[in-house]
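User: Hi! I'm a student and our assignment asks us to look at how structure tokens line up with a sequence. Could you show me two examples?

Assistant: Happy to help. In each example below, the sequence comes first and the structure tokens follow. Example one:
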Amino acid sequence: MTIDSRRIATDLETNMNRQFFELVNNQSNILSSFESNIHGQLKTIQTTDNMKYSSMVDDIKRQGNESFHLLQQQIEENAEQVALLAFNQQPLVTGIIKFNDVKYSVGFNNLATFTNTGKIVCEKSGLYMITVSIISSTTASQFNIVLNSKMITGNRFVDGVQWHTGTSGMVLQLHTGDNIWVETDKVLSVSGRSYNSFSIIKIK
């Protein structure tokens, strides 16, 4: 082998070694980049899953808190005591009857309006039982239970005896702000003391 042949062989070997090392280095870089990308994707997936799980847990907690709050509110509303018993002490009544002698009241904060005007204002929505009883000596007359200016029921006194007893009872769904009262169609001569009564109680 001549000197030129040896030099060519040496250069060829050197070149092949360099290409081999470059190939190995490139493959190592590609593998490292691939591993880095895989790691990044796995981390992203894990972060996304954690966020979804955390969001799901937060939703469950929020729904649970809302349900508990609604249940607690319903229990408190059902446990509310709202009732009133009042009497009329005037011997003559006309128009709206004022039952201004309040014997018992719980859950009503605006009694002044009721005693001054005869109209009771619903402060808490619910199902109410209302009872009105009146004794009168005026015949051919009647009293009506009125809700928001609309007559709900009437009770008429007829001829026959000196004193007439009229009693009306009903159950109504009332809403906050509703006004309810008792009114007559003419002047009534009524028995005083505890014979003429108005009662209302929240039953649900």
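Example two works the same way, sequence first and then tokens:
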Amino acid sequence: MTFKILIVDDHLLSRKGISSILSANPMFEVIGEATNGTEALELAKQLMPDMILMDIRMPDCNGLEATRLIKAAIPHVKIIILSVSDDVQDFFEAIKLGAQGYLLKNMEPEYWLDYIVSVAQGEAPISRVLAGKILQEFSIQKPAAPDNKLSEREKEVLLLISQGLGNKEIGEKLFISESTVKNHLRNILDKLHLQNRMQLIAFAYKHGLAGE
């Protein structure tokens, strides 16, 4: 299956660099480029991409506002926010608006490609840099987790998800199959009334369930 991608960034060199990274994997096809959120919304409606790589800082309409507008118009599209900043509040705002991923621009190209593939496959690992920032943000005072009735196994899966592991890696650590991990993930999302993996990671950090 070819994954159709729309690149949104106000810098030409950034767009070309991202396109070059994606060209290394035949599963991705860049179908369009936009320079701001307003253009992104129009192109998304016209081209109906499977995924949008969205710069967070742009003139006219920034990446967060564009994410809100695009998700309202095309709920199924996957959006990865691109940022030079590891600001925790930007991360949580992106998740709240429905983004499936958050990618730091200073990461190595190999990590970029692996990350985008993982989001395309329904996973969304979090970088160790960002995980550290989030953990630091909530280390002083962590609100108690609500009575969510997660089983011990589900708590183990949640902990590993919050540490950035994919389904296969979680299965290997817990000695269970990848399909069993996916079942646990679905159950956790249902119990916590969350929509995707990124929201789950945010929940884990906010409620002190991400370990130390």
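Here is something you could point out in your write-up. DSSP finds ten helices and five strands in the chain.
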